[in-house]
Every structure is written in structure tokens, then in C-alpha cells.
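>> received
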Amino acid sequence: MHNPAQNLSRAGRDAGIAQVIVNETPRQGIEEGLTALQEFLSFQDDCEFIFEEFRIWAISVGALKKTHHPNWWGALCMTARRKGLITKTGKYRAMQSMSSHARETPVYVAA
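>> returned
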């Protein structure tokens, strides 16, 4: 069972995710992101990946645009997890982007 503070924290997270999606929708919708992710996953052959790798691929092939706020990618990732498209492996890997400062991030596989 979750304590009240965790419930408030999760509610805040979910509200933030919803706001990021709304703010980016005029440029690209979350459904476009999910479609691009499904295309990316079709090339993965059950390989593990970090979401940063998908982001780099999606922008480089023109499937998605750079976003005005980086949290949109997190919102897309959470949406994909909730829809059962991807699942965490329990592993973590360092990110490559300079702005990420080699931060450890979850490794995913297609669900």
C-alpha cells in the first residue's frame, strides 16, 4: 500500500506528464510518438535499448521532431510503458547525451 505522500507525488508526476503532452501537441502528438516507437521496435528483434537511443533514431530519420521540452520524451516513455509497448529489464545504462551527464537510465525491451 502507498502512503499519502507517495500518492501525492504520483499525482504530481501524472499532472506534469499530462501538461508536457498538452504543450507539445501542436507540434507533434503522443500518438505520433507511439507510432514512431512501434516502428523503432520493429527493428529491434527483442534487443535491449535505452529510450535515448529511440529519441536519437526518431529525430535522425525524421520520424519525430526535436521537442521544445525534453520531458516530452519521458511522457512518451511512460505512456508506452502504460500501454504495454515496452517494459523495463531491471538493468540500467549510462546515457550518451552531454546534457544527460552520463546519468543512469532504465534499459527497456519491447513487451
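>> The chain has one domain: 4-110.
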